[in-house]
Amino acid sequence: MTRQKVKMAYIENESSRKATYKKRKNGILKKANELATLCGVPVGVIIDSAYDLSPEVWPSREEMDKVVSQWQRLPVMDRTKKMLNQQSYLQQRISKETETCKKLTKENKELEMKEVMFDCLSGKTSPSRIEISDLRGCGNVIEQYLKNLKRRIEILSKNDGASSSSVHAAATTSAAMPIVEMGSSSTAFSDMIRQQQIQSNMNQTVRGLDLNQQQW
Amino acid sequence: MVRKSKGRQKIEMVKMKNENNLQVTFSKRRSGLFKKASELCTLCGAEIVVIVFSPGKKVFSFGHPNVDCVIDRFVNINPPHPREHTDMQLSEAHRNAIVRDLNNHLTQVTEEFEIEKKRNEELKKKRKNRRMPENWWEEPIEKLTLSQLTEFKCGLKNLRKTVTAEASKNLQAIVPRHTFYAGSSNNAAFGICDDKGNTHTDLDVYNHQRMVAANTFACNHHNVIVPHHITTPFGNSITEGFAPEYNQNQNQLCFKQEHISECDHHSNHPPRFGHGYY
Questions:
Q1: Which ipTM value was assigned to this complex?
Q2: Which of A84, A101, A111 sits opposite B61 (nearest CB)?
Q3: Domains of chain A and CATH, by start
Q4: What pTM was estimated for this model as a whole?
Q5: CB-based contact (8 Å) between B153 and chain A?
């Protein structure tokens, strides 16, 4: 299914070139036809080469005459606004693709930095082990994340209105101290979360034990 | 919408009904047609002109060597003047050289783009595979509860402190050339260097103080007390997050030593502290 990639350069081999010309010319005419039909717009194509006795005109000389007349009726500025030749066309494509590529590179870096951030949080690595050149990118990702967190917190706090008090109550009781005193132990964020869970489980069992003792 | 279309589908060769789709189709197909025309010229050295009118009556055209030249020939059916022939040949050669270079450049950019696309796919796949349900903070923000969000925020703030600290330590060594700003430039965690590599002089003062402090006091960061306590505002100041607070309690948010080997982001960097480094 994968074709051989064609190098975008003049084909040196005569017969190859001629064969390619014939195929591609037909292809272009077909595409032009589809465009004109599907969109109901006037389209005119002229293709000329050493391999043709006379230039190929599509759809026909008469139709092309009409298109050209319509074209010539337009003020020069309108005609040239979107006019392209090889040079301008290729330059346009180059700048567009460079732009898209840059955006993608940026996104990839952000994704990478996000992984680093997650690794730090789960204890797999630490900031001291981050590449110096990545520290900044990582910092930016953290900033962006914090921004989004704050925004989300605002939204939830606003929406919850009446019920927010109960949410907060639950947060303070179940999550106990960590929000304020997270620095007390030397553990990663992820370990701290797990400690909380263990703590809350323990609290429940202790309560259970107390009840048992009372029976005795 | 009845069913999601599975990839390309055969379409009828009649004028499209939906206006919006028609416009989109026009854009895409016109672009594709021009691409094919350009390729034909490059590969086979043909001369071509394509004139297309948009649904909005605007005109698009592509021509090689240029639109007017080929149109004129069509209209007048006049062969070029013999005297002009050599001049035309020269300018044509020059033109071809330029186009050749442009094509090479385009090929190069397209290849780089393909590489980035692949990398993008890999990264997304990696994230999908590494997903661990117990690490709830890795889930999209929308799925977190308010209490989770608050905890997460705290954890991230602490992380930001360490990262900022690391950056401050290394500022003298390297000035990062590439910038990828996830957020607005105002919120840059490291305000020292802007996009053009200029150093902000006011921040130089902080940097200087930092260096002085580091040199004056013991290198063991557990005991460092910075005389100038620069509080970090959480607003949009350019110094946000830049000057970290050093406490006696360096153990604010540390990372398990035993897990560090799992993910070595910077293998050349020697581990600096024994335990409880943050």
A1: 0.74
A2: A84
A3: 9-77 (3.40.1810.10), 85-157 (no CATH)
A4: 0.65
A5: yes
